[in-house]
């Protein structure tokens, strides 16, 4: 099951997206936010698999929001849903760390594919390293050599 956080400032659009996403058997919307601050709080608390965000509808610059979301929930993948579909915007947001960019003009199946792909390839936080002195080779039986 893909756990998704939905970030969209327009209530009607947010409601429509939620309704469409809940029709999918493998997607569950675990939270919604209408602005960047609420999005950061929810991302840090809910730790979703995917964060779907319209960067133009929030109170933060898209690049800064993506960086802040990555910091708040590093294991979450961010999918951008945008009315702007120019190459410069797409490059800028993908370079900032978004897993995918979907134009609102090409929504629908493309959006669902991007969400599933992002969930499948999302960042996995590195394991905590043990101090070097505590590591032993697999063949070490504890006897001096």
From TrEMBL:
InterPro entries membership: CheY-like_superfamily (IPR011006), NreC/VraR/RcsB-like_REC (IPR058245), Sig_transdc_resp-reg_receiver (IPR001789), WalR-like (IPR039420)
Ranges of residues in domain Response regulatory: 3-119
4-aspartylphosphate, modified sites: 54
Molecular function in Gene Ontology: DNA binding
Composition bias, Low complexity: 126-135
Keyword Phosphoprotein in record: yes
Chain spans, region Disordered: 126-145
Family annotation (SMART domains): REC
GO BP: phosphorelay signal transduction system
Domain of life: Bacteria
Keywords attached to this entry: DNA-binding, Phosphoprotein
Protein name stated in the entry: Response regulator transcription factor
Organism: Candidatus Segetimicrobium genomatis
């Amino acid at each position: 099951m893909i756990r998704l956080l939905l970030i969209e400032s327009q209530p009607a659009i947010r409601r429509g997206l939620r309704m469409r996403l809940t029709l999918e058997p493998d997607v569950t919307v675990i939270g919604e936010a209408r602005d960047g601050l609420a999005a950061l709080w929810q991302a840090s608390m809910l730790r979703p698999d995917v964060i779907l965000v319209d960067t133009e509808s929030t109170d933060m610059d898209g690049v800064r929001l993506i960086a802040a979301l990555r910091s708040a929930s590093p294991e979450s993948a961010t999918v951008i849903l945008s009315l702007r579909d120019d190459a410069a915007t797409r490059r800028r947001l993908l370079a900032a760390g978004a897993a995918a960019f979907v134009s609102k003009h090409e929504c629908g199946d493309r959006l669902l594919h991007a969400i599933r792909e992002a969930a499948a390839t999302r960042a996995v936080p590195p394991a905590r390293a043990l101090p070097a002195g505590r590591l032993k080779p697999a063949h070490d039986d504890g006897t001096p050599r």
